[in-house]
Amino acid sequence: MDAMGKVNDLLNAESILKWDARTMMPPGGAVTRGKQVSTLAVLARDLLVSDDTRRKLDAAAREMAAKPEDAVEQVMIAQARAAIDYHLAIPASLLQRRTELGSIGQVVWAKARAENDFASFAPILEQTVALNREMAEVIGYSEHPYDALMFRFEPGETVATLKTLFGRLREALLPLVRAIGEKPEPRFDFLRRHYPIDRQHQFALKMAETVGYDLNRGRLDTTVHPFEVSFTRNDVRITTRFNPTYMPASLFGALHEAGHGLYEQGVDDAYTRTPFATDLVGLYAVGGVSFGAHESQSRLWENHVGRARAFWNIHFATAQEFYPEQLGDVTAEEFYRAINRCKPGFIRVEADELTYDFHVMLRTDIEAALIDGSLKVKDLPEAWNAKIKEYLGLDVPNDTLGVLQDVHWSSGQIGTFCNYTIGNVMAGQLFETASRDPVIAEGLSSGNYDPLRAFMVEHVHQHGRRYSRDTLLVKATGRPLDPEPYIAHLTRKYSELYEL
Amino acid sequence: MDAMGKVNDLLNAESILKWDARTMMPPGGAVTRGKQVSTLAVLARDLLVSDDTRRKLDAAAREMAAKPEDAVEQVMIAQARAAIDYHLAIPASLLQRRTELGSIGQVVWAKARAENDFASFAPILEQTVALNREMAEVIGYSEHPYDALMFRFEPGETVATLKTLFGRLREALLPLVRAIGEKPEPRFDFLRRHYPIDRQHQFALKMAETVGYDLNRGRLDTTVHPFEVSFTRNDVRITTRFNPTYMPASLFGALHEAGHGLYEQGVDDAYTRTPFATDLVGLYAVGGVSFGAHESQSRLWENHVGRARAFWNIHFATAQEFYPEQLGDVTAEEFYRAINRCKPGFIRVEADELTYDFHVMLRTDIEAALIDGSLKVKDLPEAWNAKIKEYLGLDVPNDTLGVLQDVHWSSGQIGTFCNYTIGNVMAGQLFETASRDPVIAEGLSSGNYDPLRAFMVEHVHQHGRRYSRDTLLVKATGRPLDPEPYIAHLTRKYSELYEL
User: Fold this and answer.
1) Interface test with A, best of B39, B236, B267 (most A CBs within 10 A)
2) Which chain A residues have any C-beta within 8 angstroms of a chain B C-beta?
3) What does the similarity note say (chains A, B) (predicted)?
């Protein structure tokens, strides 16, 4: 499987070049860097689907034929072959058109957003929808073309499964959001005090280390949008953003990305440079099995651990040491309530734990409707604003704060939004099972996160991409994706916080 | 020539991965990074020598047949074909053995150097010599096998040409070194005061910008050994080292690397991603035409500009602003004399401008003698120590300060040392011609380095790898490599400094 190792190397190299472009590269380097990234991406794909690789896979399959179907080698070979079929089904001309559309799209979108001019972005979006419909046809699907587009990010998820899931979430969570709207807000003035950026960096890093992020195989940098990226399990980097007058942005950004980082750092070393540490369909060097599974780990450490009362009962003293002036007149309980303030807003990436999913559901439903033709691009702002009104009770004042806010569609990409909510649901399910273990529960109240992390390593991280997301969930919790633990968590937490 | 663009992209990606490994990578990432780098290096070579690339070159050659032999396209094709022949002559097994020897060698060498144990490194060095002799045979040469090994770094240079050059340098410079040994030392205590590292970083960067290093296409980082590396002319990075009690290390490290950086930043943009910005023989994405030519630019800006009295007559006031406590009781003249102190020592990388070449000549002569068999590895320490005594009048106390000091041989590499002295000589020659121009001379005394840089861009930088080093020199100065201007510069400078 040396060819798979080389594909992994190329994709990791591509990731390094992209990380560097976002963190270190001087501005003049952008254009030639784009060419370097593109050359690596094309070479990785070409190497994967090459006759030589396919011959080697055939030979390996013959050699391994006696092994059971679920043997590591058999699963790797099957995954590689399935990915090759996926790529060979997509004509090069279609990929080329998407790349071209993406590079124009980002420029047009940035201008449209700045100028609140949806009409100028609409033609790009129409082409994006048409192109993704073509893409869905060549990839194939049973029921809904949008299923084919989600496959790359959340294999197995369909419009039908999401309809059930989203219905249940809306039913359970909308009453909570509405009830909170009637309640007084907690104190949160102290979060908006001046927090020096170098202190924020040190504190965010300390909290990331506290939950187990390994700095011998990691580092924290600064970017406009926080992200995590790994170049094998041995080099897993995170970034966060720093706002001198809003400290939670850097803190929870770092905890979120550290959660992603723990997943990658925990993949079995034996899977390094194999298909179990390479998304051969998405052509991305990653050990997490789906975008949703990945998000489950970031949301678990950010929300279930980092926004819990138990966490701040222990670590608020450290926060006060870092910020004696800013937090001197604040109690741990006030801090806990402030970082969990629920406040419906227009912007997804600024949403609180409870309202976040509504932003996601609205986008996913809209994407599916665009793809099956039941919604037209020209009617999109109206549909968007109606949903924001329905879910969050807000009147969207302009498209910049509405339909133009996300970068995703401008890159020619459709099908990625559901992962965020699946991650939340999966986090709730895993956390419920894990915290039933008294050792883990005791660790959470005493500030020892090793037992919880060990649970995640055992049931999620170490397996890399070996099992599907739902197989992982069945093995870890006894059942596939189930929203009830997540709903119970939010209901319990917010009922208590807002005395509902 | 799209294939050449891809080779350049891969080699640039390899450079980015190596830069990252030295500046940013967490320690845990080393092993898998090694595999990623190796995969890129192998793919770049394979792509260059592939049947497909050769067919494309043949087709391009037919298309361009009507153009004159020195047309850009013809030269590019000829260079690519020559590089392919070079690589195809070297058996894969030989490359493999050198890689393996290099990875063992570095470990054995580091231990031997730490423990002052030449005997434990000798077997590695014997294998390195034998392997390089094999390498010389397959590459081919007319007179001396060492010529074949220098080809990759300094095409056209031979043992015969170096014999003449080194003889003349020794004859002219040894009397200077000896005469200075009889003279009193200048004051230099203030260079050893405490200089905070963040101030050093700012000052070094300011001086690099002063000579024209473009930060829109560059950045300065910290490493143990300073270096420059480019990822096309649009992203040219430098590093320096910081010693809190020896400020010149960071300052002249940065000026030296900025000199390298100016070369790469000055290559014609039309040559980006072409053979004129790619060392296809050395498989390294670089615009400089030889290692010696590159060194001429670093030494020119470090020594002819940065260690000149005129430079500090202007910029010493800035130095005092940065370091009011450290330099408050110092004059510009004292500073100038201190940074030009001549003091024979054991370590090449710490040598002053005048004694540096003796370290280089000694290594080059020893390498040539090892390769032709006239010197045996076991006799190496004795030969080394005898030369240090002869040239610098010093008794080498141990091999750690002698024959074990350089990393070069441990990586399986022989043939790279002469570049340093060729760079010095070439810098002297170019500087003499340039500074005859009254506008350039006026700029040097008034602190405007644009005219000198414009000369270098016109005569050296912009051409990238289009012309050979000596063709460049003939075009710029009217003659090929000539040590007399360099000798005149050192004689004038040191005679005045030490009242010889």
Assistant:
1) B39
2) 5-6, 9-10, 12-13, 16-17, 20, 24-33, 35-36, 39-40, 43, 214-219, 231-232, 234-235, 237, 272-273
3) Belongs to the peptidase M32 family.
DSSP code of residue B25: -
CB B286 within 8 A of CB B277: yes
- What does the alpha-carbon distance between residue B121 and residue A310 come to, in Å, rounded to a whole number? 58
Beta strand pairing call for B236-240 and A228-230: unpaired
Quick one: which of B373, B335, B341 has its CA closest to B354?
A: B341
One pLDDT digit (tens) per residue for chain B, 500 residues: 799 999 999 999 999 999 999 999 999 999 999 999 999 999 999 999 999 999 999 999 999 999 999 999 999 999 999 999 999 999 999 998 998 898 899 999 999 999 999 999 999 999 999 999 999 999 999 999 999 999 999 999 999 999 999 999 999 999 999 999 999 999 999 999 999 999 999 999 999 999 999 999 999 999 989 999 999 999 999 999 999 999 999 999 999 999 999 999 999 999 999 999 999 999 999 999 999 999 999 999 999 999 999 999 999 999 999 999 999 999 999 999 999 999 999 999 999 999 999 999 999 999 999 999 999 999 999 999 999 999 999 999 999 999 999 999 998 889 999 999 999 999 999 999 999 999 999 999 999 999 999 999 999 999 999 999 999 999 999 999 999 999 999 999 999 999 99
Name, in order, each residue with C-beta under 8 angstroms of B182's C-beta and a sequence gap of 6 or more: none
Residue reference for tokens 């012309």:
B467
Helix, strand, or coil (residue B403): coil
| Contact criterion met (CB below 8 Å) for A143 and A159 | yes
CA distance B203 to B201: 6
Give the CA angle between residues B438, B440, B441 to the nearest 5°. 60
Q: What is the DSSP annotation of B79-109? A: HHHHHHHHHHHS-HHHHHHHHHHHHHHHHHH
Q: If one looks up domain B159-498 in CATH, what number appears?
A: 1.10.1370.30
The answer to whether A36 contacts B217, with C-beta atoms less than 8 Å apart, is no
Which segments of A are annotated as binding site for Zn(2+)?
A: 256, 260, 295
Query: What is the rounded distance in angstroms from the CA atom of residue A322 to the CA atom of residue A337?
Result: 20
The two counts, helices (H) then strands (E), for chain B are: 21, 3
- How close, in Å, is residue A441 to chain B by CA atoms? 31
Q: Which two tokens stand for residue B262?
A: 């100016």
As a whole number of angstroms, the distance between CA A316 and CA A337 comes to: 13
Residue of A nearest to B19 (CA): A20
Q: How far apart are CA B1 and CA B82, in angstroms?
A: 15
Annotated binding site of B for Zn(2+): 256, 260, 295
Domain ranges of chain A: 1-89, 159-498
Element at A229 (helix H, strand E): strand A228-230
Q: What is the ipTM metric for this complex?
A: 0.94
Q: Report the distance separating Cα A399 and Cα A379, nearest Å.
A: 12
> Which residue out of B234, B269, B272 would a mutagenesis test of the A interface target, given it has the greatest number of A Cβ atoms within 10 Å?
B234
Q: Which DSSP string corresponds to A136-187?
A: HHHH--SS-HHHHHHTTTSTT--HHHHHHHHHHHHHHHHHHHHHHHTSPPPP
Task: Tell me how crowded residue B237 is: count the other CB atoms within 10 A of its CB.
Answer: 25
Q: Is B91 left (phi over 0), alpha (psi -120 to 50) or beta?
A: beta
**Residue in A234, A300, A227, A297 with CA at minimum distance from that of residue A469:** A297
Query: DSSP letters along A458-483, please?
Result: HHTGGGTTSS-HHHHHHHHHSSS--S
Order of strands across the sheet that contains A218-222: A218-222, A236-240, A228-230
Listed in sequence order, the residues at least 6 apart from B332 whose beta carbon sits closer than 8 Å to its beta carbon are B312, B313, B316
Residue pointed to by tokens 């990409």 = A413
